Every structure is written in structure tokens, then in C-alpha cells.
Amino acid sequence: MAVVTVPGAGVRGERRRGMGFAGRNALTGYLLLVPVLLVLLGLVAYPFFYAIYISFTNRVVGIAGEWVGLANFRYLVGQPSFQRAVTNTVTLVVVTGLAKLVIGLGLALLLNERFRGRGLFRSLVLLPWAMPGFVAFLVWRLLFLPIGGGVNLLLQQVGLLDGVIDWLGQRSTALPAVMVATVWRGFPFWCISFLAALQNVPTELYEAARIDGASAWQRFLAVTLPAIRPVVLTVALLSSIWTANSFENIWIMTQGGPSDATMVFPVLAYFGMQTQRLGEAAAVSVALVPALLILVFIVTALMRDEE
Amino acid sequence: MNRQHRISRRRVLGRAAGVGTVAAIGGGAGLSRLEEALAARRAPAVLRQGAPLVYWGGLIFSDEANQMLVDEVTAWGEANGVATETVMINQNETNQKVSAAVESGTMPDALDMGLDLLLLLSQAGELSDLGDLYATIGGGEGGWYPSVDASVAADKLGGAHTGIPFGASGNLLFSRTDALEAAGQTPPPETWQELREMAEAAQEPPLYGMGLALSNVGDGNLQISVMQSYGGRVANDEGTDCTIASPETAAYLEWVSSAYEAGLFPPGATTWDGAGDNTAYLAGQAIFIANTGSVSIAMDEDDPELAAATSYSPLPAGPVGRVSPINPNVRAVPTSTQDQDRAKALIEHLQGRDFLERYYAVAIYGPVLQYQADFEAFTGPVRAGLADLVTNGTAPGAPDVYNTAYADFSANFLVPKMVQRVVVDGVPIEQAMEETQQQGQAIYDKYR
């Protein structure tokens, strides 16, 4: 039987058995990703899923515990502290987020303009963010002290206050006072992120808009905002998560009081840790996850729409 | 067909946000633990050879006492050829640090702790039986004070003596005699009602009458004792069910809320941190405070005039008697400690007469062994008060049963929170009591 040799067939066969340039390139890429993936799995995914697991157990420190289903969550939902933590956390995230957006964007727009000392002001605006959190909130606590606190002294000096206001000690003012401190500490991150985004907006767009007769407000709405929207969404998302998980602002200023007026999830979890009931403490933390996931989905959906 | 992947800035930002979210959530959970760490918890002795003996001491307000403790451990190590490492821990954070250490297998070889933590760790089987050492130390002249002995009885701690008491804590009443005498009052007040009346007569804001914490910190739990002195009880005699809603508790709430309404508490008392009463007293904002003695150290150093104008006395009594609990601080050895003998030897050394006589002179503890009453340290007013407390004080939790449910109840600050509901939110006393009853019962139900 005659054998028909097709020129080049062997070479193609070898190519099929071996790995092409693109394949080798992809493999190298995946190999380079392995260390990062291992770190993420070990330090992020494992603790995350382990926390979810123990939230369904009655684990205490030193004792493995048993599966108790939703018992920890049922117990928590029945606690007034938990109910307060839900409303306070949502309020804290939404109100401080909006305030940081307005202040951060406003300052970023100002700092994007040319004026003498701009570099200095850009540095100064970072100070609250650069300061250690516990120092910042301790200072705010001192400022809000009813006797000898800076806020009351100032109001007394300008004649707006006769007597004292216990800013952190009454329900109507405790959470707003904590919010003020939280906004002060957090707005520089928004401001600097927005400033970086603003510097990437092509000036040609503004020139074109100007030629078309757009006013400053119209240029802001039609050029600036769409251009920095992805950064706004990302900063809002990250800041919301950080605020929802923030501990030191509340703990240093009010310990969640008075009467749970400033109770939030991390402080509630910390109380759980004091009695070493890890299952309950984990349940508090895990209870926050669905809300954060919804937030993530909304923001990523918005960003996908943008693309 | 090859699909073209475009890596846009938005895509990168989106992925970064996603990863950041998971990281933040994981971090927020704060409960991470690697299984390998558990395995390492009881590492073979061969791996631990050469490792120093690690001791966690409890920080107190006296720098001199803290340094003396560190130096003593170091000197003991050098004398015995043992490498030592002493870490001083803020006692407000001992629970959290120990929880993390147990879970990660990094417990020290010996450590100081309070009774709450001793109870929790003993019941979890995390502490070694130090019965022999307890008997040896207590076998000297006079033995342990009965109140101290009863507080750490083996039957309360899972059947073993897991803690060696080294100092007794408790609250004394500090009174500003200058302000009180100027108002025609003669301290000390014998009852809480008398204290209120004296405070009302003498206070002149910004000097307020009643510098008692009503916040979610350990000092706020003094209100449990006040409530108990009015006859209110956290739980029944068996320690199984919460019984806080009662006419006696209502009477206590009436007392505290009327004093609050009268402006006798310094503004901010509902959110004070652990040093709130100290700060208020030192700043001249409080006539009365209940304090373990730390304020006196600060006064002696920084404000001798205030120290001279201060008198010390036991806590006042309520309608059913005086409730003034002692809280022995103990040293313990975790079961994970490889060299148990050395750890016990260190604890025994720190319990020696020579060291404790010097230590008590600068620390803020009352005695735990009866022979220590003769130490010169306990002739001064504050430490004499602490020595008196050890003799005449009440058992921890008493008249309630001191068990894990009680410790959980205390750790959740339900009594100060109940007060806050009345004085901050203005809810009726009956409603505040009923809410606390439900929350307290939910806690006691967990321990059935």
C-alpha cells in the first residue's frame, strides 16, 4: 500500500501536540498569578468563608462548638442593640458618604484650578487622612467634651451658647457628632481621588464645550461628571465599605452609646468578643455581608453600564 | 475564534473594588485563623527549646509598679538561667488579646487576668490546675483571706484551682472633703441616698456631685452593685433566670434617674471611657467618684492639694445593705505552656513576700494573704481602704451567682444601658426594666 506523504503535515502535528506561543504566554501569565492567588485565598477567602462557617456554630474561644444553624442570627435579630446597629450603620454610611462626596468633589474642583500655594493646599488637605485614626478621633472626642470641649467653648465665645451641650451624651447629637468626625477624617481620600481623575480629563473637551456655548455648570455636568464617574463610583464603594467596617471612630468617641445611639456592627462584634462567643461575634460581622454585596453589585453594574 | 479582551480603566477599577470589598469584609469579620496555627499550639517541646518564657503582665496606672514587675521577672530569669520575655498588657484589652492568642495558638506561658476571664478560660479547659501551688502559697501564716479564697474556689472554676490571686481590686468612694465641708456636709455618706443629698447640697457646676460612670465601660458596671444594694437582682438564686424586673430595681432606677434629672452627674457620664471618672475628678468636676485607687496615684504625683482634700471610704449602702464586690486579680498558666514547672516557679517567685511588699507599696491592689495586712503599704488611706475591702467586701457578683451567664450579662453592660434608656431616651422605668429583662433572659437562656 502506497504511503502518501503530505508536506508539512508532521510539522503541524507537532505543533498541535506542543504549546504555541500564545499558549505558553498564557501559561506564564497564570503562573505569575499563582502567588497572588495563594495570598488571596489564604488571607482573604479563607478567613471570609471561615467566619461565615463559625457564625453558624456556637463556638467559643477554646471550644470548637457545634452547628446551631441560624440560632446566632435569631438571637441577634431579637436584640435591640442589633436593630440599632442596622439603622445606625446605614445612616452613617449614607450621610457621611454624601457629605464626603460634596466636600471632596468641591475641594477637588478648587484644587484643580491654578492659584498661588496650590501645592501647599493639596498637601494640607491630606492631613486628616494621614493622621492616625485613633489620634484624630481622640481629638474630636476632646473637642466635643461638654465641659472644656472646643466646640462648646467656641459656641460660648461667639455668644451662640449659654451653658453646655453634651454632644456625645444625648441621642439627638451623638451620631451627628460622630459623623462630623468621620467625614473630617475621610474626605481627603475622596478629594485626592477626584483630583487625580480631574487631571486626566482632556482639556480639549472643555474647549469644545466652551466653543459650543456651554456654561460652567453645563461643562461640569456634561464633561466633568461623566469623565470622573468611574472614580466616583469606586471611591464611593470603597469608602462605604470602610465606613461600614469602621470601629475606632465609634469606640473612641462613644463606645456605641449612649443607649446604643451610635451602635454599629463592628462595635457590636467587639462586645461579642468580650465574652469570647466567637459564633455570635462572627454572626454580627456576617450579617453585614449581604448589604455590602448588594452595594458592590449595584456599583459594578453601574460601572458595566458605563463601559 | 479569539475574543479580544480589552482591559479598560473601568474594568480594572471594578475588579479592584471587588477585591477590596472581599478583603474589607474578611478584615471586618476579624476572626481569621489558620488551621496550621492550631496545630502549632501544642508544638513539640523540641521546637520550643530555647524559646523564652513569655509572661503577660497586667498594666496598672503605676508606672513604677509596672517596671518593678518587669524587672523582677527579668531578674528571676537571669538567676535561674531562663530567658524571659515580659509583655505588659492593657487590662481593658486582655479578653480580646487572649481570645486571639487561644485561637492562634500563641498563648503566653503565664499571664495575669481578672476573674471574668479566669472563669471563661477555666470552663473552656484552657488553664492548668495550680492546686498544689495554691495550697503551698496559702499554707503560710494566716493563709488566704476567706473572701479571696471563696472567689477562686475550685468548684466555681471547673473543679480546679486555675488562678493564683496576687492582688485584690475593688471600689472605694473618693470624696472632696473641701467642697462638702464648705456646704456643711460631713463625709462619708453612709447610704446612696445620703450621697445624693450631699452631692446636691455641695455641687457648684462645673463641680458636679456624682462622678459615677453610666457608660458602656467596666466602671459603668458599678451600677450593678448599686442596684443590688437596693435589692435588685440580676438573676434568681440558682443563677439560671434573669430577674432584673422588680420593684427593687425600679426603686434604684428612680434614685439614679432623679439624680440625673437634678443635674448631679457631670455631662458626658453616659459616654465616659474607662478613665472618665478619673479625668473628671482630677479636673475638679466631681465631688464623689467610685474608684479602685488609680486616681490617688495621679493625685499624689500631680496634685497633692487635691489629694489632701480627698477622703476615702467604703461604698455607701442601699436599703438592703452594702454591696462592694472584691475582684481578685490572678496569675494563671495556660495548658498550652510547654514548661509548666518553670511557669509555676515564676508565679511562685512573684508571690514571694519580699517582692510583694515592695510591689504593693507602689501598686493599687489590696492584699490577698492575711500576713500581708502587716505590710507598711496598707497603712496609707487608699491601700488601707483596699485592705478593709478584702475583709469586709462582698463576693464577686453577690448576692447574685457569679457564673458565665452573669459574666456575659456584665460584659454587655445591660445595667448601665438600662439607665441610659431612662435618662437619655426618657423611656418609662417599667419599659426600660422590661427590655433589660428580655435581653438578660436571652443571655441566661444561652447558658442552659
UniProtKB/TrEMBL annotation, chain B:
InterPro entries (UniProt xref): Bact_solute-bd_prot1, SBP, TAT_signal
Transmembrane intervals: 12-31
Keywords for this protein: Membrane, Signal, Transmembrane, Transmembrane helix, Transport
Family matches, as Pfam families: SBP_bac_8 (PF13416)
Broad class of where this protein is predominantly found: periplasm
Location in the cell: Periplasm
UniProt GO cellular component terms: periplasmic space
Superkingdom per UniProt: Bacteria
The family this protein is said to belong to: Belongs to the bacterial solute-binding protein 1 family.
Protein name stated in the entry: ABC transporter, substrate-binding protein (Cluster 1, maltose/g3p/polyamine/iron)
Organism: uncultured Thermomicrobiales bacterium
